[in-house]
Amino acid sequence: MSKTKIVIFISLLAYFAIFNFLRNNYLYTTILDDAYIFFRYAENIFNGFGLVWNIAEPPVEGYTSFFYLLVLFLGKSLSLNLESFAIIFGTVTSALTLFYVYFIYNHLYSENSKTGSANIISVVILALSPAYAYWSGAGMETSFYSMFVVLTFYYFLKLPENSKASLLKGALFGLLCIIRFEAVLFFLVSLYYLMKENNSLFRFKIKKSAILFATSFAIIFGTYFIWRWSYFGYFFPNTFYAKTGGGIQQVTGGFLYIIKALRLFYGFGWIPIILVILFFRKSMFTNKAIFLFCIGLVSLLTTILIGGDHFHLGRFVLPVFPLLFVFFPPALDKMLSIHNEHLNLKLSFRTAIILFIVAAIIIVKPVNREAIKGFQNLLDSKKEVIEVYDKSTETEIIDWQHGWIIMGSTLKRIANEDDYIAAVPIGAIGYYSKMNVIDMVGIVDPVIAHEELTDNKLKQWTAGHTKGDGRYILSKKPEYIQLTDYLTRSPLEEPHKRSLQFTSVKEIWESEVFHNEYEFYPIEVTDEWYYNLFRRK
């Protein structure tokens, strides 16, 4: 490996490590709540209970990545703290993601580059997006999947079409689909790319390399798929059913999700980026670049059809964003190499101006502000953790996750592990409480996940948060029910309107059975902060 590549990787690794360290020096944790669902599954597997959410209940595929779950299980087997391990793993895989993006851009454009620096600058601009920093410390599978996407497509394009290479390519796609189910579409598009004849969209040729590619993929992913289908009993993961079924509202929500995600990636920082892209010329098109861009478009279309996601900063867009960005490096190379009599700046100055403008515009993004405040805490030798509070529910709650961790820890103290609680969200509450948790939105509950949505429930579509069934939850007679998902300065019996957006919460609160069988049970958790529970009479 050349000295330049080593420097690039070490720089990327240091960048994400420092960023996560600073954010963790401001927030209680950078890990998102859904990551704790993974952690709970990993613990249950490690303790010999199998792929279950609640011990002694049937298996349910309430996680979004089996491969990532295996990685966490490995960390648990090594007696590592799962929260720290997930952040470190996300840091490394995020660095590797952009490292392989550099490899892809070099493979596509290094021979025709006039400046020799456009590929590196493109990677730096990608790294400046707050989305990469945010997901590197989120504890989810996003950075792992992003890394495997670019790694797989790099070797797919780089390796020759001999037998060994074709088998390796198929194996990589098989593993990629075990990380995220929807990557099967990437395999199909790639198989089409291998089989189609040059300069034709509809003429195909059966090649030995394509057969070996498909066979290797089928052995790895097919074996896994048959096992998981027989084990869980459903064609798709339970999370898919929980987050779909919204018809046209779902598709509209997915489209709006794409627009919002791309906007948040850079905000006004898109202006200088788009100005650079204007230097792109039709002569810069290559078959490989078009193929990668089409993979990105397929991913966007899939995301629109499934309704998007409720997380900010484009969890479903980020893995293919470097592929959508694939035409930026040659345009940047053209801009940097063009001669202008009125603005005759050196290459280094042009580069510095572009990077400075993009960085200056996006420095105000919340993720970057968190890192800056973490740096201030470091200078002051303190860490001020901001907890959730009720007055901000109309606008913004800064640290939701800390509140959920406190809730889970409180339940660990007051409840028995055999008790049930109905709640939303369920990640940290389930992981820290160790008790049985009924998911009000169906992510780990097949009954709610497979229900059909009525027009009344579809008035406000939110991916993963629309389904619910208050009557079903009450029929399970949980010992505790949580209707308010944040801490308050005083006991709050009636849930806030933002809590009533969840179908289960609304139906439970309006149920006569609930008010007859449950009593308000507020708990002061710390310094006059209250956890608002309802307890079975």
Topology, please?
Blueprint: H1 3-24, H2 33-46, H3 66-77, H4 82-109, H5 118-128, H6 130-136, H7 142-158, H8 163-179, H9 184-195, H10 208-232, H11 238-243, H12 247-266, H13 270-277, H14 287-305, H15 321-324, H16 328-337, H17 347-362, H18 366-379, H19 400-414, E1 420-423, H20 427-433, E2 436-439, H21 446-449, H22 470-475, E3 480-482, H23 503-509, H24 512-517, E4 518-526, E5 529-536
Helix pairs in contact: 1-4, 1-18, 2-3, 2-20, 4-5, 4-6, 4-7, 5-16, 5-17, 7-8, 8-10, 9-10, 9-14, 12-14, 19-20
Write up what this structure looks like.
By secondary structure, this protein is mainly alpha-helical. It folds into two domains: 3-30 and 61-362, no CATH class; 391-536, no CATH class. The chain is built from 24 helices and five strands. Helix 1 crosses helix 18 (366-379), helix 4 (82-109) packs parallel to helix 7 (142-158) and helix 19 packs parallel to helix 20.
In short:
The protein has 537 residues and is mainly alpha-helical.
What are the defining features of this structure?
537 residues, 2 domains, five-stranded mixed sheet, single chain, globular, mainly alpha, 24 helices
